[in-house]
Amino acid sequence: MYEFDVERLTPEQWAMVVLWEAHLAAEFETKDADASCGTMTDVPYVNHVPTITGGVGHRQLNHFYDRYFIPNMPDDLEMEMITRTVGLDRIVDEFVIRCTHSVEMYWLLPGVPPTGRRLEFVVVVIVCFEEGKMSEEHIHWDQASVLVQAGLLDPEHLPVVGAEGARKMLDRNAVPSNLLIKRGVEDELL
After folding, report:
1. Measured between alpha carbons, how far is 135 from 2 in angstroms, rounded to an integer?
2. Which residues are bridge partners to 52 per DSSP?
3. Which of 74, 188, 64, 187 minimizes the C-alpha distance to 120?
4. CATH classification code of 6-142
5. Contact yes or no for 91/17 (Cβ under 8 A)
6. Residue 71 CB: number of other CB atoms within 10 A?
7. How far apart are CA 176 and CA 168, in angstroms?
8. What is the pLDDT of residues 134-160, one digit of tens each?
9. Most distant pair of Cα atoms in the chain: their distance
10. pTM of the shown model
11. HEC string of 87-150?
């Protein structure tokens, strides 16, 4: 488990962390769209990059959170922190999400009915702050990895992996490096 040293933060950085943690709690624990949007500036922007889901402004984001994001989280969803970087006006979190695709997840797999398959993938979130509030969230993940695990993409002849990418991030020795290269190259040092 990743441990973040809060003692090294300035008061301004600590305030950003507290606000970001409150935002996450509203999304994943209390499941409160109003509280989640209450952590944001007047015209916030959220973009899940692989699926361009999210929105701009309180009205659109509150609607998105209330109807398509918060209620469409699998009951077994868990997040494991890999790293956190706190700058002057932004936080970058890297973590692994694990869940069973038991509900339609509009933000992750829009238009795909539940497959019942287990998903495990790395997510990177860049959270920007202005005047003590969150102004932007840019959320990135490897959509090909998610599609492989959901059974929607056959990795056999493509340079993509499934949950192995997340497992390697959590334990560098869990999955050998260069497996995709080794499909077509014989090299003892790889």
Report:
1. 26
2. none
3. 74
4. 3.10.450.50
5. yes
6. 12
7. 8
8. 999 999 999 999 999 999 999 999 999
9. 57
10. 0.91
11. CCCEEEEEEEEEEECCCCCCCCCCCCCCCCCEEEEEEEEEEEEECCEEEEEEEEECHHHHHHHC
